[in-house]
Each structure stands twice: as C-alpha cells, then as structure tokens.
Design a protein that fits this description.
Pfam families: Ribonuc_L-PSP. The chain has 122 residues and is α+β, with helices and mostly antiparallel strands. The chain is 28% helix and 30% strand. It has helices at 43-61, 78-92, and strands spanning 9-11, 22-25, 28-35, 68-75, 100-105, 114-121. The protein has a six-stranded mixed β-sheet. The longest helix has 19 residues, at 43-61. The relative contact order is 0.24.
Length: 122
Amino acid sequence: MTDQKTQPKYFDSGAFLHRSDAVVYNGVAYVSGVKSSNKNGSVTEQASEILAEIDRRLADIGTDKTRLLSATIWMHDVIRDVNELNLVWNKWLAPDRRPARSCVQSALQGNSLVEIAVIVAA
C-alpha cells in the first residue's frame, strides 16, 4: 500500500522536457535552478527576476521563502559579483530566515550571470 504523502508530486510548467520546475517529496520541495531571461541584465536585474520566479514557484507549491532550508547559487564571476548579489538576496530573504547557502563560480548556460536553486519545507 502506497501512502499519498510519500509519493513525489511534480510541478511542471511544460517549458522543459528534461526536468520539473519543482518536486515535493515527504514535506520538502526541491526547486530547480532558475536563470533570468534577461541575458544582458546586470547581476542585480538577473537576481531580482530569479527571486521573483522562485517566489512564484513556491506559491504554486503552497509554501514560501519563510520556509527556506537551503540555497545553491551559481555565478559566472563570484568574486566580482557576490556583493552585488548579496544586496538583492538580503533584501529578498524573510527576516531571521537565512537558509544554509552555497555560492560557487560556474560556467552557466546562455551567458547567464546567476542561477539559483532552493530547497524549502513544503
């Protein structure tokens, strides 16, 4: 017998054939990496768009950023841009709700400057 709570639930915009936007399993939501569609934007502009999309995905799941557990942030140039990112990130976070976070430098698809994935209690 399969318990409904232990079955993964997939949230999919239909935009990609190779992944879901988020998966909820056993009370935890895993949100896929989000990149900005504004490839010419600054780190501030890209991060702002990304965080708005994360808010939207979390609302679709029925949770929000106050329940963040972990975030992984990939940046094209972390040394140069992390302070700019942190200004946007710190304004976005809910008060006293700082998740565990990793921020690493990476070659990103489509000339993106930032990509962010989060894990959230659902």
